[in-house]
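Summary for the steering committee. The consortium agreed at its last meeting that each partner would contribute one worked example illustrating the joint modelling workflow. Our contribution is presented below. We chose a case with several input lines so that the handling of multiple components could be demonstrated. No manual editing was applied between input and output; the record is shown as generated.
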Amino acid sequence: MSLPERVKQARENHDFAPLIEMIPYARLIGMSCLNLGEEVVFVFPPLEDNIGNPTLPAIHGGVIGGFMENAAIFHALAKLELFAMPKVVDFSLDYLRPGRYQTTYANCSVVRQGRKVVNVSVTAWQNRRDEPIANARTHLLFE
Amino acid sequence: MSGSLSMLEQMKSIIPVLKQCRVLGIEVVEAEPGHLVLLLPYDRKIVGNPDTGVIHGGPLTTLMDTACGFAAVTALKEPGIAPTLDLRIDYMRSAIPGKPVLGSAEAYRVTRNVIFARGLAYHEGLQEKPIAHCTATFMRIDPAAVNNREKL
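What follows is the complete predicted structure of the assembly.
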């Protein structure tokens, strides 16, 4: 399946599985997506391989970042119907609460679409959506 | 006990305890108080763009978060805990497919409550052409306070 076909499927069926399957790193960390009506929530299951601090235990902050960066890319591709992988210009992450060894969710919104650059914000949470564990924003460059 | 081990030996034994670092194959190259160089090997499983074979930003974030985090902790005179407050990565150019990436970090300012760290990701011999620049801040937490909180 080509990238445009995968993007179309994500857009029309709110099914991001074909996009996730395409990216080795997204497969490695075990992310998936969940349909809630028209809304899509990205899901990051607790996997032993993703642990950072073993005593808490907590998910490695870097992988939480990787999960959120992936979510932003997939969201932008589908939302804006873009057919090429973007370059990530920058990625900024605020850690608000410990990323415990449990399922993490994330949703994204496009804050601003410029001619070449898209600003996407990402929120990640575990127990309650109104208690985020991390907020991120990224600039994606589509050439 | 830790006093008899060099900082490099200590880091070589601690960092593989982080499962995700082991999964990515992250190795310790240099370690001094407040300064760390780690190596992220190239692997097909961390690719972010299947057409080009360029690695994803996620493993670079993990490399730099780990390097900055341990640079921050080792900058302290007494061992402590320092969770990440925030982290920003600027991607300056794509990593070259097939090549390992070095991640160097230094804690450049330690205050009573906060540690400021920064770092670069680059290929060996190409430090003047970095792949990514990272800044991160860490909160200093007294280990005794954490133990007390866990007892409650």
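Chain B touches chain A at residues 17-21, 23, 44-51, 55-59, 61-66, 69, 83-91, 94 (CB under 8 Å). DSSP finds four helices and eight strands in chain B.
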